[in-house]
Amino acid sequence: MSESNLLENVVEIQRKLSTLIGVSGHENDVSAFIFNELKQHADNVWMDKMGNVLGIKKGTDPDGLRIMIDAHMDEVGLLISYIEKNGFLRFVPLGGIDKRLYPGSDIKIQTKSGKTISGIIGMNPPHITDPKLRDISPDHANLFIDIGAKDEEEVKNLGIIVGNRAVLDGRFEYNPDIGGGFMRGRAFDDRTGCNVALQVSKLINDMEPIPNTILYSFTVCEEVGGRGVPAATDGLNPDIGIALENTIAADVPGVPLNKQITQLEHGPAFSVADRRTLYHEKLLEIFKMRAEELGYSWQYKQPAFGGTNAGLWHTMHKGIPSGCISVPSRYIHSPIAMIKISDILATINTLLAILTKPIEI
Ligand SMILES: [Zn+2]
């Protein structure tokens, strides 16, 4: 595939994935899309009982490595917890969301039938708010979603029930002209990782067969504590695991360099350690070497923030050597994140080189 075809494909898949709603536990729309894409590029694709989408592309060497690449399909969001008599909805968060984002947010509620209904997280105007309260971040007990309904019955007739999921909505945009080209949109953590894995699956399928067997894993429920990945790992039985993530780039005004975690336009970010994992050092050396051979810059994800699905691997199946490669992103876990085109393309090409060349660890 030419570089311009790859770019076109990357943007289209990112647009599609970013528009789908898939809060932890309700990933069905995302998994259906990924299933259909992956089955075009793998020998065998299936869904396990948890809802993880798994696939295998068999290698030519029967003794070759089984390499699992994993990206999580779920995103942070809200769970509808109570419907008030007067039609307002109460909610609790699923995954890490900063409460300061809530007031005034544009909400999309996903009903069981797959319909989406818009709402607003209501907030009293400053005119009638105690000045002391304006500087305090809101409390869940005082927050509600307003869908414009007149009462509880109308809410229920719309198909909204306790347990429905909702997201803070954000518009997708691709802009090739500013800052070397960027995409912005909702749920980039971790639809970006899903996009990277899908692109690599297509590229590997289009090339001469390779010795290693590639195991594709698109997991549920990462944002609520990595609950999908143990089942996926049992189903795939890998020798090596590589988590694909969308990680924090805090390269914005007011953040000192030693706290930026990663920076946009510095290439793929390789993890050394985070709150869950001490990553395999030889695997890390291979990641760096492959990026450099391609002439890409790369960066460390500064230890030791966050955690990934790799956190479970290195303690499972007698210990699976684990790595993590991330596309840097500003504003993750907010309604709109931003990534640079150069970073996602470099991540895809580096991962492809890692998987298709020998790995000796
Ligand atoms: Zn993530």
UniProtKB/TrEMBL annotation:
Q: Which UniProt keywords apply?
A: Aminopeptidase, Hydrolase, Metal-binding, Protease
Gene Ontology MF term list: aminopeptidase activity; metal ion binding
Q: Does the keyword Protease apply?
A: yes
- Binding-site list for Zn(2+) 1: H72, D189, E245
Residues spanning the signal sequence: none
Q: Which cofactor does it need?
A: a divalent metal cation
> Which biological process terms from the Gene Ontology are attached to this UniProt entry?
proteolysis
**Active-site residues, record numbering mapped to chain:** E222 (proton acceptor)
Q: Does the keyword Iron apply?
A: no
Details of cofactor binding: Binds 2 divalent metal cations per subunit.
* TM ranges: none
Question: In which residues is Zn(2+) 2 bound?
Answer: D189, E223, H333
Family, according to the entry, reads as follows: Belongs to the peptidase M42 family.
* Name of the molecule in the record: M42 family metallopeptidase
**Organism lineage:** Archaea, Promethearchaeati, Promethearchaeota, Promethearchaeia, Promethearchaeales
